[in-house]
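Shipment paperwork, digital attachment
Item: protein structure file
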Amino acid sequence: MQGNAMTDLPGLVVTGASGRMGQMLVKMIAASGRARLVGCLERPGHAWLGQDVGEAMGGAAVGVKVTDDALEVFAKAQGVIDFTTPAASVEFAALAAQARAVHVIGTTGLEPGHLARIALAAHHAVIVRAGNMSLGVNLLVRLTQKVAQALDADWDIEVVEAHHRAKVDAPSGTALMLGQAAAAGRGVDLDDAMVAGRHGISDAREHGSIGFSSIRGGDIVGEHDVIFAADGERIVLRHIATDRAIFARGALRAALWGQSQKPGEYDMMDVLGI
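Attachment content:
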């Protein structure tokens, strides 16, 4: 007997459903024709709990109620798309691994302890984790590594990023991706080369360091420059995001790609094949 075409599609859960990314993902999954929405999560006590997510967003009902019970919704899902907080993402990683669901993590601000726990969960399920899900940014990461590889340490490297006023982590996850790419191209450890923010009177710029500057204001979606500066010339690599839909599209693509992969930890380079 043939299955229903709709129910044969991968079932996805959106965490942090009331947030900007969460609402965009809910709409994108519904319109995609390639997946179905089977769950929406919010934190305990949230005003949306118990409501149909479509109605909570101000539209028509979609048949999925917002819940704070991750275990229940993960059990019926093939994928989880997660743009929340580091502490929440670590808990979701363990639960998604139990359910053998693909876990797409777009959360930024993850520290070594969080990453270690996510790596443990990846022994049992597919995890796709990236500081940025857009195609353009991931191409910029690769270009940054190539340019850093081609230039010597006489070229100073600075990463400048700008985001909306509500963003709480700095430098951004994308800026750190770019810094790591530059460090890899140069053959150094970013932890040793990184200089984040400058204030007051300081010594001259340390040879070989990789600097970071963060701008916060208005509704800036995301802008990233990687500046290679030498005496007499500069190379500037730039990516400007004007619509958060690029991140939602990338996350959905990652969730679908992960359905055919073996357990392990992947990034958007793997998903995009670059």
